[in-house]
Amino acid sequence: MNRCPSNINHFFLVANAVLGLTYSTLVQADTTILITDIGTSITDKVAIHTHVDTVTHSNPTDVVLDGLPAVEIRGTVTGVGWGGGGLVTRAADAHYRYDIPFVARWRKGCTCQRLVFYNHGGGPNLIGAVLREKQVGAANSNRTAELNGDLLVGIPALLDQSAYISINRRGLRGDGTFSATYLPPTPPLDAAEVMQLENRLGGFQQPGISVGAPVPLVLTNDAATFRDVARALERVVASLIQRPFCTRIGVGSSSGARLFAALDFGRSVIGSQSVRTGGNHVSPYDIGSARIFDGFILSGFPYAPGVEQADDAIPLSGPTFFLQGQGDERYQQHLTMAHELIQKGVVLEGRIWIYEIKNLTHVTRDNVAETTNPSNGDRLGCFMSAAVRNLRRLLEQRVPPPRSRMAGRIVADELRFDLADGSTTNIAPIPNDPTLDSYLVDPMLTPQTIGCPETQRWLAVSSVLSHESEAITPPTVACRLGGYKLMFFGSQLVPFSPSELRSKYGSFENYRAGLCRRVTNLETQCLYDQRVESGHKTAELARPFFD
Predict the structure, then answer these.
(1) Span 262-321, pLDDT tens digits
(2) Cα–Cα distances in Å, from 466 out to 127, 316, 415, 524?
(3) Tens-place pLDDT, residues 433-480
(4) Cα–Cα distance measured from residue 405 to residue 355, given in angstroms and rounded to the nearest whole number
(5) Cα separation of 29 and 12, whole Å?
(6) What is the pLDDT of residues 194-221, one digit of tens each?
(7) CA separation (Å) from 188 to 95, 99, 169, 205?
(8) 72: which of 59, 63, 67, 445 fits an S-S bond (Cβ 3.0–4.6 Å)?
């Protein structure tokens, strides 16, 4: 059903006059919009009272992204949030003032009535971002994390005629200053804390670290804050486009997936507690009020063990896709979440879809700012673009998405996963071909044994969710150039020799033809979008290996 008003001009006159938007514009200057009616108030285990004050944005500018003409604004959202993790550990889970950077884009000349909002991953603590600031200064990707999803989700959104918004939740602004600081009664930094921080930073002077300064924080997983920011940015961008959004999709990676899960499933994990932080309805937990997002795509979802993450009353607010790489140590955590939904009485069929992809790592080569260099393997963005289109068609036209793709089978009462050499494993991450592939263990990637609890959850989910019993085979696995070293931040190709490649394929042209056939096959199944990266373009990356 179309929720959009038929009289667009009347809608925006009302929006600007009644809904709390006041424009203050200077010639060739940024525009600041006062927001007076967006906030979240809820008391569960804690009392949360948050609100947005302003949205400031640049003049709309014409840009071209991957050949797509678009219009872009950048800016910040200010207000009062709740939660966070302080630069000093005593400060946490309290009210703070924020000034959060964002980017928004839409197709030039396009009447966008769809919105894709992306939340990036990372940002577990602020000291890591500050130490990176010491190392690389203006090149610190934590300053510009709102741009991390440009290739992964930004391009797919534009291809689907959607507006795109992304914010920076890493705790820094573009100039390297802090984007959020705690309000009283949280005490400011004292002399001992400043000395300890300065010693750790080895003489580096970070603005905002001084005696008496408010404690800075990172707001990675703060659902109440994000609810407010998302509503404010949706309103502002819709007013610029002069079209209300009829379909709103939330896409999250890693910690961004956890943040969207707090809206979708209704609860946040705060320490060892499960806390109501607002959910996905404008009026918290009131199913009679409008939803903030209509559906969700969660990639690399991290489940916090031992803490319930679905609300008893509203355990699921919209259709949800899980995209999960088998090359990720977090493989099977999406099944843990699906199993919890079953326990809360959710019927998965027609509401949850799971798409597992062979050899795909936690961070893929779409994120050029944070993957290893070079990073090889497949682009998650091609699968993401298909997912955005499939979810949008489900929401708008009731078109069923492709069936779920879930690997695994029971061998001697144990969940095992088939490998390309004929063996099986129960260790995640899962290198597809152990004779060629491996993984690099480091603090971010620790192998996880899939044991009896995981087996029971898999049995429960697989018995009620219709699926094909194999993970998706992506182009670089179907058409091998060699083995892959799987890492948390990407994967690295260990190529066959030119003579081995010629023996396997005969020529580069034959390799390219085979890879293009695989891409076409995936696209025919509505699992892949080669507008993001064509089979020919992917194949061209391999041409040097044949010389």
Answers:
(1) 999 999 999 899 999 999 999 999 999 999 999 999 999 999 999 999 999 999 999 999
(2) 44, 19, 18, 20
(3) 999 999 999 989 999 999 999 999 999 999 999 999 999 999 999 999
(4) 5
(5) 23
(6) 999 999 999 999 999 999 999 999 999 9
(7) 13, 18, 22, 18
(8) 63
- How many CB atoms are closer than 10 A to CB 411? 12
Decide if pLDDT at 372 tops 80.
no
Q: Is 493 helix (H, G, I), strand (E, B) or coil?
A: strand
20 band by pLDDT with thresholds 50, 70 and 90: very low
DSSP string over 217-238? EE-TT-HHHHHHHHHHHHHHHH
Instruction: Give the pairing of strands 320-325 and 352-357.
Output: parallel
Measured from the Cβ of residue 372, the count of other Cβ atoms closer than 10 Å reads: 17
351 burial class (0-12, 13-18, 19+ CB within 10 angstroms)?
middle
Question: Average pLDDT for residues 98-112, to the nearest whole number?
Answer: 94
Strands 409-411 and 424-425 turn out to be unpaired
**Quick one: three-class SS letters along 334-398?**
HHHHHHHHHHCCCCCCCCEEEEEECCCCCECCCCCCCCCCCCCCCCHHHHHHHHHHHHHHHHHHC
Backbone angles phi and psi of 366, in degrees to 5: -65, -30
- The whole-angstrom separation of Cα 160 and Cα 286 is 31
- Residue 397 host element (H or E): helix 380-397
Q: What is the mean pLDDT of residues 137-149?
A: 96
Which helix (H) or strand (E) element contains residue 44?
none
Distance between CA atoms of residues 441 and 329, nearest Å? 10
What are the structure tokens assigned to 336, written together? 């843990």
- Of the candidates 187, 217, 191, the one whose C-alpha atom is nearest the C-alpha of residue 127 is 217
263, 280 contact by CB (below 8 A) = yes
When computed from its CA atoms, the radius of gyration of the chain, rounded to whole angstroms, is 23
CA distance 275 to 271: 10
398-425 residue pLDDT tens: 999 999 999 999 999 999 999 999 999 9
What residues have CB less than 8 Å from 423, skipping those under 6 apart? 434
For strands 427-428 and 448-449, give the pairing: antiparallel
Instruction: Judge contact between 461 and 333, C-beta under 8 A.
Output: no
Specify the pLDDT at position 22: 42
What is the phi/psi pair of residue 449, to 5°?
-80, 130
Contact between residue 333 and residue 365 where contact means Cβ atoms under 8 Å apart: no
pLDDT at 17 over 80: no
Question: pLDDT value at position 102?
Answer: 98
Report the candidate in 271, 288, 213, 243 with the shortest Cα–Cα distance to residue 92. 271
Angle at 97 (CA atoms; ends 94, 98), nearest 5 degrees: 115
Please give the angle made by the CA atoms of 538, 301 and 148, to the nearest 5 degrees: 50
223, amino acid identity: A
The whole-angstrom distance between residue 361's C-alpha and the CA centroid of its chain comes to 14
- The tokens for 26 are 């200077």
Type of residue found at 196 = Q
Structure tokens at 370: 């944070």
Q: Give the C-alpha separation, 479 to 514, whole Å.
A: 7
Give dist(CA 155, CA 17) in Å, integer: 33
Model pLDDT, residue 468: 98
Residue type, 385: S
- DSSP annotation of 306: T
Residue 61, classed as helix, strand or coil, is: strand
